[in-house]
Write a structure and sequence with these properties.
mainly alpha; 2 domains; 3% strand; 10 helices; 262 residues
Length: 262
């Protein structure tokens, strides 16, 4: 637990500092995390993370993410128009590598590219969406972290009824409600001080974060349980891999934009 807390504090402070810097430094960090995240996904799925098919997956993921990065103007060819060619290349690859690379592998490669590409794309885009991008990014991150903390401590001291034992046996309904309430309180309280969002919009953001942050965590738990792995990686001591830390982010940020709350 001590190692987990220390790693979490150091990692959180470092990431917030990079959000503050913005620009090329933040974009480089997002790019690095996305590449590591997709590497972890391929490895969990039993795919060769450095093979030809995975290379096409990285290209597909980058074509989604690229336009949200600060240096995207330097390479206009890298855009979402590469998704369809990537799909066709992978389908053709199943013919060349019959009995070794199947249609299921194509699906996993494309799903990984979409899941991680869109998640990190909206995370990066939030920083540059407006003059308040720094504040909005921090607000959402604090909402996610307060959801995690609220769910953990409420579940630890008050949890009795299991939320979804087949996916995540330690989560409880009481903990889930505690996480939702914590997100709502933190987001509304912080925004009432800074005053960027209207009260009702801030409350909606807090509620959406409180729900979808937990959904994102359950999605990652379901993926790991399906592939029978404990953690997505080992790069973060006490926390596992990159996907273990950003699972909620990959769902929360895109949904907030789709709902036009950011």
């Amino acid at each position: 637990m001590k190692q987990r807390i220390v790693t979490g504090i150091i990692g959180g402070v470092f990431f917030l500092f990079m959000v503050y810097l913005g620009g090329i430094w933040y974009s480089l960090l997002i790019l690095l995390l996305a590449l590591i995240g997709l590497f972890e996904f391929f490895r969990m799925a039993g795919l060769n993370p450095i093979g030809f098919a995975s290379l096409i997956g990285y290209v597909a993921m980058l074509s989604i993410l690229w336009s949200s990065l600060s240096f995207s103007d330097y390479l206009h060819a890298m855009d979402s128009g590469l998704l369809l060619p990537a799909l066709f290349v992978l389908l053709f690859y199943t013919v060349l590598r019959r009995n070794q690379f199947h249609i299921e592998h194509v699906a996993l490669t494309i799903i990984g590219a979409l899941y991680i590409g869109f998640g990190f794309a909206y995370l990066a885009a939030t920083r540059i969406v407006s003059a308040d991008g720094f504040y909005l990014t921090i607000l959402v991150l604090l909402g996610i972290w307060s959801t995690d903390s609220g769910a953990y401590f409420t579940g630890k001291f008050m949890g009795k009824r299991k939320l979804w034992p087949a996916i995540s046996p330690n989560k409880t309904i009481e903990g889930s409600l505690g996480g939702l309430l914590a997100s709502l309180i933190v987001v509304v309280a912080i925004d009432s001080i800074v005053g960027v969002l209207p009260l009702m919009q801030a409350a909606a953001v807090g509620i959406v974060i409180g729900i979808t942050a937990q959904v994102g965590d359950l999605v990652e738990s379901a993926i790991k349980r399906h592939f029978d792995v404990k953690d997505s990686g080992h790069i973060l001591p006490g926390h596992g891999g990159v996907l273990d830390r950003v699972d909620s982010w990959l769902v929360v940020f895109p949904l907030l934009h789709v709902l036009h709350l950011l």
